[in-house]
Amino acid sequence: MDKKLAVHRYKLHQRKRIKKETKYIRSIMNETILITGASGNLGSKVACELLPQGISLIVAGRTKDKLAAFEGKAKVLCGSLEDIAFLNTALQGVRAVFLVLPQLKQLNLKEFADLFIKAAEDNGVTHVVNISNCTLKRYGQWTSLLEFEQYLNASTPLHIKHLRCANFFENLNWGLHTPYLPGIKLPYISSYEIAHIAASYLKNKNFTGKSVDELMGREDYSMQDFANKLGVPYQQQSTSPENSSFFDAFNTGQYELVQRTLENTSILQEERFSLDYFLAHHFKQEALNAAI
């Protein structure tokens, strides 16, 4: 074969390949993404990460007033994911889903996982980013979010990325004074950082099978650390019948956390991902005197 002709054919083949790949990438970017829990702290931030990129979004939540900010920017749906009709409506035309386990009122964990998986498969969903937690076990038993991971992974072709997140800084807004022992250090992370990472996975869909990312934030903090940072004394509270099981597990060491490593410790340096940014912009001053 003539050398010039061979080179021409090779270049033509390369151009066709690049054009095909570019078309595929653009088609992925233009596919609709469903954000569940969009009326909440984390889901709303994921939506706000994606909207400026021109991505087609459906935002779903239970609180209509909190979804109002997305009117005219995304398709807004208010309802319960436990309602199969609502779930199918929300998933129509969707390729990727940001999933936050809702507060279940009618179904148990397995029932909801089975409901979601079937509806997602029926509607052509391929990728799911699921929010989980870095607390793996309490009293030797899987926590509900880890149990939910296992139900989602069972017998489904969906590609699922589980984000096992440290405690949110927003937990401080529930009340600075808690039953935690003053010196117990736990990992924390900015919800902005989680949203940034989740949005990237949803946009690029660059994960396959069932996989886990551990998001541990920059460092661990105790409640005493937070109190010192805020310039107030920490007042440890007594447990109540409603919360004793939760707090006693930590106070007596009956819990298992994701172990901090170099790989799962945040290296992102954006200002809004820091504790100082949260305290300056989102900490509620009334939490200084509030107690859990």
Written account of the structure:
There is one protein chain. The protein is of the alpha/beta class and 292 residues long. Helices cover 38% and strands 19% of the residues. It is built from 10 helices and 13 strands. The strands form 3 sheets. The protein has a 7-stranded parallel beta sheet with strand order 3-2-1-4-5-8-11, sandwiched between helices. Helix 3 (64-67) links the parallel strand 2 (57-61) and strand 3. Helix 2 crosses helix 7 and helix 4 (84-91) crosses helix 5. It is globular, with a radius of gyration of 22 Å. Residues 21-29 have low confidence and may be disordered.
Class inferred from helices and paired strands: alpha/beta
Overall radius of gyration: 22 Å
The biggest sheet amounts to: 7 strands, parallel
Report low-confidence residues grouped into runs of 5 or more: 21-29
Distance from first to last alpha carbon = 80 Å
Overall strand count: 13
Count of individual helical segments? 10
Query: Taking strands numbered 1, 2, ... along the chain, how are they ordered across the largest sheet?
Result: 3-2-1-4-5-8-11
Shape verdict? globular
Q: Order of SSEs, N→C?
A: HEHEHEHEHEEEHEEEHEEHHEH
Strand content: 15-25%
User: Please, what is the oligomeric state?
Assistant: single chain
Overall residue-averaged pLDDT value: 92
- Fraction of helical residues: 25-40%
Q: Short description, anyone?
A:
The chain is of the alpha/beta class. It has helices at 3-30, 41-50, 64-67, 84-91, 109-122, 144-153, 191-204, 223-230, 244-251, 275-281; strands spanning 32-35, 57-61, 75-78, 94-99, 127-133, 135-138, 141-142, 159-165, 167-168, 186-189, 210-215, 220-221, 255-257. The radius of gyration is 22 Å and the shape is globular.
